[in-house]
Design brief:
The chain has helices at about 10-15, 25-50, 105, 115-125, 190, 200-210, and strands spanning about 60, 65-70, 75-80, 85, 95-100, 135-140, 180-185, 220-224. By secondary structure, the protein is of the alpha+beta class.
């Protein structure tokens, strides 16, 4: 048991004189303190440990206090009874209670290492279809490193175009080839569900990757 464990029913009973510990009086106290328990559970269970709620289903009827994970991977709680066909973006029927269904304890364990980054991506996009349909990463060999110069000294270090006093110089028409340190492979079906356009789908993946990747690492996203 953690030192942060909190139970409003237990606290209510302990702070109530024995002569007043009647069922109706305690039930009244439980009602008064229920919102404190709701907030504690939201922070120390959902936010800290993560959520295991079902994905929102447009054909399912939801009742008050039901919780779901929407397509944006955020957690929503139903505010009304018999909500059918009204998605969680409707603030009349739903309230957002968590920006990420993955717990903070889990998220802080991820970093730029390939196996952990692959795990983070598959978890975030809830991709549990099997080992043959996973997001995976391959590294690429960089064959040539180019140093790009600016047109003048205000944006770059000066470098002669051609001079007998330099052993190397910048050509008049240099060509540069984009090289990627790694490639992220995403299943076609999953990639198609991440947005209405190609750039939106790509950005959805980059929003996750850029949280963990080191500065200077260039990567691309391809489908298979």
């Amino acid at each position: 048991m953690s030192i942060y464990t909190y139970d409003t029913e237990q606290v209510s009973e302990q702070l109530t004189p024995p002569l007043l510990r009647r069922s109706k009086f305690l039930a009244w106290l439980y009602t008064l303190t229920s919102q404190i328990q709701w907030l504690w559970s939201l922070v120390f269970e959902d936010y800290k440990d993560g959520s295991v709620y079902s994905q929102y289903d447009n054909s399912t009827t939801y009742n008050r206090l039901d919780r779901v994970v929407f397509t944006d991977n955020k957690v929503y709680e139903c505010l009304v009874n018999s909500s059918l066909g009204v998605n969680p973006l409707n603030t009349t029927n739903w309230v957002k209670i968590n920006d990420n269904y993955m717990g903070a304890i889990e998220r802080i364990k991820y970093n730029y290492q390939i196996i952990l980054l692959e795990r983070a991506l598959n978890r975030w996009f809830r991709n549990y279809t099997g080992s043959n349909d996973q997001i995976y990463i391959t590294t690429n060999q960089i064959t040539n490193q180019n140093f790009i110069m600016g047109f003048n000294g205000s944006v770059s270090s000066p470098m002669a175009l051609n001079s007998p006093f330099t052993t190397t110089y910048m050509g008049l028409n240099p060509s540069f080839v984009n090289q990627y340190n790694m490639t992220i492979h995403v299943p076609d079906d999953l990639f198609g569900s991440l947005g209405s356009t190609g750039p939106n789908r790509t950005n959805a993946i980059r929003l996750v990757v850029n949280k963990y990747i080191l500065a200077g690492i260039i990567y691309r996203i391809v489908t298979y």
